[in-house]
Design a protein that fits this description.
Elements: E1 28-32, H1 36-48, E2 52-56, H2 59-68, E3 73-77, H3 85-94, E4 103-107, H4 113-121, E5 126-129, H5 134-173, H6 184-187, H7 192-235, H8 237-245, H9 251-268
Parallel strand pairs: 1-2, 1-3, 3-4, 4-5
Length: 269
């Protein structure tokens, strides 16, 4: 729950030089708090910084929204009814879809510090006091979103390395089609990995063309052998006819001779 601070009110958005839509790479932020006051305050603050913000009043609603949409950061109240922040954190960090989404827990500085420690142990990135200063909010959000973007880049890099490794295994395994290796997006990168993928794709194409020509030559060679074998058998028709017409020809010997010719024909093919 939000506890209204007893200190003087924070400066308005217009009065503070911290505010303004000057964020070069805005993020999408989810605010989770059962207090309408704190939800409204945080949403206006986040949007004034240039980010996109959505707000929900319960942990269950937050999990449903996170399952359907992508967010760069979650601002999460710890003390909420039905499903508190700890349960939400546990669900987020055990799901492959949301475990890398950074979470900033919202808490009081005095009586809830032990809860903040527990939340960080469960995977929260940082905490924000309920009577936060504008500069602190901006710094915490910027730091978390920057870390999230770096992690996303790293995950994409590792994913593309895995694709390139799989393509190499396919190439090593034998027959393949370069168009189906699935590394065009990797080769489109402008870094070292992209250069490696581009060289690999060129090499794979050359290997594919070489093997295709080799298979074509083998088929041509087999066809030539077949023609030679057929020609050889045709040349033996007359002698075999004469042998068969002789009364003295032994039927077993004639059968063996025919079998040998058939075997030679099969070996030639």
């Amino acid at each position: 729950m939000y506890r209204v601070p007893s200190t003087s009110p924070s400066p308005s958005f217009e009065q503070s030089s911290i505010w303004g839509n000057s964020v070069s790479n805005p993020g999408k932020i989810l605010i989770v708090d059962d207090s309408r006051t704190i939800r409204t305050k945080l949403k206006k603050s986040v949007e004034a910084l240039g980010h996109e913000a959505e707000a929900v009043e319960s942990g269950r609603a937050a999990l449903d929204l996170l399952a359907a949409e992508n967010f760069d950061l979650v601002l999460l109240d710890i003390m909420m009814p039905v499903m508190d922040g700890f349960e939400v954190l546990t669900s987020l960090k055990t799901s492959p879809r949301t475990r890398d989404v950074p979470v900033i827990v919202i808490s009081g500085l005095d009586d809830e510090m032990s809860s903040v420690v527990k939340a960080i142990e469960l995977g929260a990135e940082d905490f924000l006091p309920k009577d936060f200063e504008l500069a602190l909010l901006k710094a915490r959000i910027s730091t978390c979103i920057e870390k999230k973007r770096l992690r996303d880049v790293e995950k994409e890099y590792l994913r593309q390395v895995a694709k390139l490794t799989k393509a190499a295994a396919t190439l090593e395994g034998g027959r393949f089609n370069p168009a189906k290796l699935g590394i065009r997006d990797v080769a489109a990168r402008t870094d070292g990995l992209g250069k490696l993928a581009s060289v690999f794709a060129t090499m794979a194409q050359k290997v594919y063309e070489r093997e295709r020509k080799m298979r074509q030559n083998i088929r041509t060679f087999r066809g030539a052998l077949l023609l030679l074998a057929c020609g050889g058998l045709w040349g033996l028709v007359v002698p075999l006819s004469k042998m068969a017409s002789l009364v003295e020809a032994h039927p077993i010997g004639l059968a063996i001779l025919i079998d040998l010719i058939g075997a030679a024909f099969c070996l030639g093919i």
